[in-house]
Design a protein that fits this description.
Layout: H1 21-26, E1 37-44, E2 49-51, E3 59-61, H2 63-76, E4 80-86, H3 105-116, E5 121-126, E6 139-141, E7 144-146, H4 147-164, E8 168-171, H5 178-188, E9 195-202, H6 209-214, H7 242-254, E10 258-262, H8 268-278, E11 282-286, H9 288-299, H10 305-319, E12 323-326, H11 329-337
Parallel strand pairs: 1-3, 1-4, 1-12, 4-5, 5-8, 8-9, 9-10, 10-11, 11-12
Antiparallel strand pairs: 2-3, 6-7
Length: about 350
């Protein structure tokens, strides 16, 4: 048999750089560390920890437990914790009035966490849905979510959070113009060092379901007939990408320090476009549905839990994320530190 002629250069074998762990680590293009993670945590009134059935491994934390979590984050090298409240049903109303309570759950949790571990950043969700009995992120009138009236409530909520010691305000409501109004209010109050991470491209997604259980959110479409059954009139259509760039551009112009894409894994194409277009610190939220799918498959033996967690988080870094908000943060930080 005639041998093929030798190539004018040595044979290229890409597998040479995969043959051992040390060389794979040496040539790795992206690296995930605990410093890339923001711990998504739910706090509740009362004592102890309460498991969330649809999110195995996630528990609602009391204020005291939230302070312990802050110390744990410090020990693990996780830079920040994002706080989401589970509010007792009796404190909810149509307007989400409890959202701006300076003695409420969020304010007490933030203060306890900053006292326990001042080196750990605290991010607060600026949104009304945990506090409204209808589960929407805004004020409803005639079946419509009112944009400007909602922003007034959000600004009062954000100022309360900043005064309590929150480092990063993260408006997640998707009302038009809210970042600019919030930034001006912070400046006027002498809170110019408070950062804003806008949920700039937040989609009306099916992947939020377990979170609604975790925070005890009101059921959309229930109660008065004027309660819309979904959030599609203010959160983005999942089919759109160019619109995401317009949303991000507006939030940056209005004073956002960082931007976020939500959900995470199903929207990595959006993350990449935002990073390439704006070169801004861009985060993604690995939401409750993403967490629940991985954990459900792992509990059934269909996925390797630890490998799946790290691989999913690594995808965010590969897409260009500066960081990832995730319920996996403490587990992943331990795995990365092992």
């Amino acid at each position: 048999m005639t041998q093929p002629p030798l190539a004018p250069y040595p044979a290229l074998r890409l597998r040479r750089l995969r043959q051992a762990d040390w060389i794979r680590r040496l040539v790795r293009e992206t690296t995930l560390t605990p410093a890339d993670l923001v711990w998504s945590a739910v706090v509740h009134e009362g004592e102890g920890r309460i498991p969330v059935a649809s999110m195995p491994g996630v528990e609602r934390l009391s204020v005291a437990e939230a302070a312990k979590a802050a110390r744990e984050a410090r020990a693990l090298g996780v830079p920040a914790i994002a706080v989401f409240p589970h509010i007792d049903a009796g404190r909810k109303d149509q307007a989400g009035s409890a959202a701006e309570d300076p003695d409420g759950l969020v304010a007490r949790a933030v203060k306890a966490m900053k006292d326990a571990a001042p080196e750990v950043g605290v991010l607060c969700d600026v949104a009304l849905d945990p506090f409204t009995d209808h589960g929407h992120d805004g004020i409803i009138e005639g079946g419509r979510i009112l944009n400007d009236a909602t922003i007034e409530r959000l600004v009062a909520q954000g100022l309360m959070q900043a005064r309590a010691g929150c480092d990063i305000l993260a408006p997640s409501d998707m009302m038009d113009g809210r970042v600019g109004v919030l930034r001006r209010a912070l400046e006027a109050e002498g809170l110019q060092d408070t950062m804003i991470m806008s949920y700039a491209a937040k989609y009306a997604s099916a992947f939020y379901g377990p979170y609604r259980e975790a925070i005890g959110s009101g059921k959309l479409g229930s109660g008065p007939s004027a309660n819309p059954g979904d959030k599609k009139t203010y959160q983005m259509d999942f089919a759109n990408t160019d619109e995401a760039l317009r949303e991000v551009a507006l939030d940056i112009a209005e004073g956002a320090d960082m931007v976020m894409v939500k959900p995470g894994l199903p929207y990595l194409d959006i993350v990449r476009r935002v990073v390439e277009a704006f070169a801004m610190p861009t985060f993604a939220f690995q939401v409750s549905g993403e967490y629940a799918m991985i954990m459900a498959a792992a509990k059934n033996g269909w996925l390797d839990e630890e490998r799946s967690i790290l691989e999913s988080l690594g995808a965010f870094k590969r897409a260009g994320c500066a960081g990832i908000i995730t319920y996996f943060a403490p587990v992943a930080a331990r795995l990365l530190g092992a």
